[in-house]
Amino acid sequence: MDLERDHQTLGEFIIENQKDFKYSTGELTRLLSSIKLACKIVNQKVNQAGLIDILGKFGKENVQGEEQQKLDVFANAVFINTLSQREVVCGIASEENEDFIRIENAQYSEKSHYVVLIDPLDGSSNIDVNVSVGTIFSIYRRITPDGTPVQMEDFLQPGSQQVAAGYIVYGSSTMLIYTTGRGVNGFTLNPQIGTFYLSHPNLKIPEDGKIYSINEGNYAMFPQGVKDYIKYCQAKEEDRPYTSRYIGSLCADFHRNMIKGGIYIYPSGTNSPNGKLRLLYECNPMAFLAEQAGGKATDGFRRILDIQPERLHQRVPFFCGSKNMVEKAEEFMSQNS
Ligand code: AHM
Ligand code: MG
Hints:
Layout: H1 3-6, H2 10-18, H3 27-48, E1 57-61, E2 67-69, H4 70-85, E3 91-94, E4 101-102, H5 104-108, E5 114-122, E6 133-141, H6 152-155, E7 164-170, E8 174-179, E9 184-190, E10 195-200, E11 211-213, H7 224-234, E12 243-244, H8 250-260, E13 262-266, H9 279-292, E14 296-298, E15 318-321, H10 323-335
Parallel strand pairs: 3-5, 11-12, 11-13
Antiparallel strand pairs: 1-2, 3-4, 5-6, 6-7, 7-8, 8-9, 9-10, 13-15, 14-15
The chain binds 2,5-anhydro-1,6-di-O-phosphono-D-mannitol and magnesium ion.
2,5-anhydro-1,6-di-O-phosphono-D-mannitol (AHM) binds next to strand 5 and helix 8.
């Protein structure tokens, strides 16, 4: 099959599907195109990482108190600059920045309706060892009046209000997967000509899977329900053919489960009482994608997309993936609550 001839490009796909979007003014199309551009720039740098002096630590901590890697800093700047210079959003919140950013002209424009929340380089502990990293983004329409400065409440909307979300995996090939609430589609980058092609139309997470994905190094601190679920997966009975895979890059672990079926868990009781992952930058977008692909995402008890956020950098326990596997894990959680 000829990829260039037989497959739609991401640009064509975005424009063609614009008409299905309820506020179809072309604004979201421009925003998604800007994300596509930023992602190509980051991809190019990630692929050069072994060649130039960009690997390693930047020497600072981010707002989560974690060491920032050079590529984190670069990716953060690329996404913020690309989105703000094009004035396609009125505000940006990034996992790497303490406060949200108001885009000067766009926030006063009657035409600029969107805010973006972004984890510019997810899984950054994997950069130095040539393992897949990713980018995660989440898009909302502002709820404060047009033409006024964006406010915190524009960012603290429940995930169910997202108008689009997606992730990019910089892996053995680079893929961009996104949803605007009408299913999930995946695009693979042809790096020779810098074009994404529709390679995975209408992605669906298998209802059942064989893979459980969790950092078992934290086992001693897991809630009893999670411990019991892991033991259930490990019991070698005929109907339980489970195996474990954990990359430590959410985008890559989620992507594998999306294709093959599986569950990803980052529970409470580990790095912090609410686990490690951030509701706004990581869990909401992935939950939106999971549900759009027929999967499920909860905090062990509640639907992630129903949670009313209270803070930009709020963390939440995360159980996400194949519907039947998430429901089984929830069963163990409820037995121990
Ligand atoms: P990051 O955004 O700082 O890279 O942290 C998020 C990452 C996820 O991609 C990954 O699933 C998780 O942290 C791994 O954490 P741990 O090393 O504690 O298992
Ligand atoms: Mg992250």
